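Ticket #4471: structure output looks truncated?

Reporter: J.K.
Steps to reproduce: submitted the chain below (256 residues) through the standard prediction queue, then opened the result file.
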Amino acid sequence: MNQSEKAELFGTLHRKGDPVVLYNIWDAGTAKAVADAGAKALATGSWSVAAAHGYADGEKLPMSVLVDTAKSITSAVDLPLSVDFEGAYSAEPEGAAANVSKLLEAGAVGINFEDQVVGGGGLYPAERQAARIRAIRAMAEGKGVPFFINARTDLFLAESDLSKHAGLVDEAIERGKAYAAAGGSGYFVPGLIDPALIEKICAASPLPVNIMMRTGAPDVKTLAKLGVGRVSYGPGPYRSMMEKLKQEAAAIYSPL
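Returned output as attached by the reporter:
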């Protein structure tokens, strides 16, 4: 498949009620392992890629390293790849689009693109974020690739008090509609785990909804019944792998 065909395939995998499951990777080696396990597509997690290179999350990883990582993955595995691109390393629409074009050239067919102000505070106003999405969509259309923009809102992730999540749903729905109108392909709501709230957003969203697995989240079968179109695992796989590595190393180095 060429890149456009991979992008088209990736989009078709997002079906409400029959979600694509993405066990997030961070390099070519983990990409091969997950592909061999039966994955239909691949997705990086920004936290994991950064940590694997010794950096903190939040665009601390040099963008050139992230682009090179994407190139190494697309060279090693012939599956659609989505890259967690945080805020696209630019607050401005034009800069965001130019940066995403580098990932597209690296062979990626999609991105996660968040509405929090990376390194700042709070979220961009919905229309400002929509303008950034429009710029990315226009760039991708100019290159003839049906690029998958997984528009992420950080409303729920930023609010650690789960009892307040119900009060954020209306804004989340409105943001989702604005991002869809701007050219978004999917709607990512990390941090949300309440089944009733997930179902409400799925019912109202014009885009397939992405839920991130975390402690307390429903299982994949339940999420499918709620109408979810994409399930991802974020930094979970990296943390699990590193914990296993530390345990095995500790067993070797502990005194006999």
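Triage note (M.O.): checked the attachment and the full token line is present. The chain has ten helices and eight strands.
Status: closed, working as intended.
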